[in-house]
């Protein structure tokens, strides 16, 4: 499941890169598949370092880039508060699963924890990451929706208009269990795995070229496990002390984790259904880009 989540996440990055390059270059005569391939190659090269240590500095660059890019749509978007009319169950639940994806900051916790110099500091790091991400995502999402409302684009950087989107994308674009890859055979295997994962991700991005639909499907199928029902199952099977009804603490935590477990299973099933319905509806109404399209105009 974790590998599939990585493939879909990388696919969303390929799609984001395609949209960004289409806007930045602004050359409708160039086939959009070229930008998708370019994004995939770039992600492949960035994924080649076998441990996080080699490119930890990119985390700071990424944080600064995303923070700078997010402010553009907030300042430049037109005002439109009211939600769209006729929203059905699938559209509403798809929007909820996008929120689930946005706040799933603990998905890579095992990979990061395994490479930390002091693994005992992991709790502090994950709490800091969670607080910072929740604040940034909540403020950015709520402010953009307050100003843009039903007219918000996907991704939201497109809501500010073509010029601001180009500038914002400019700011936004400046793993296996083997930690040490130091032999030719190991490098060949590692490079092959990264290339295969990138190829699968590119196919996913081109096959589902609607950003919010891709995120919704990914959140429903994979993120719900790492965010909801896996932690609840961990508590019941590993962290619980004694029987579930031994004392008020166990009773309260059992009820809480039971609710989280069923919430995750509901989003898994209903969210996946809603995501598929939204994607099918997008194809039928023509509001969705064609898979493997060469037309750059479909991204603008």
UniProtKB/TrEMBL annotation:
Gene Ontology cellular-component terms listed: membrane
Subcellular compartments: Membrane
Limits of the Amino acid transporter transmembrane domain: 2-163, 183-276
InterPro entries in alphabetical order: AA_transpt_TM
Spans traversing the lipid bilayer: 27-48, 60-82, 88-114, 126-148, 187-205, 217-239, 259-280
Highest taxon listed in the record's lineage: Eukaryota
UniProt entry keywords in alphabetical sequence: Membrane, Transmembrane, Transmembrane helix
Protein name: Amino acid transporter transmembrane domain-containing protein
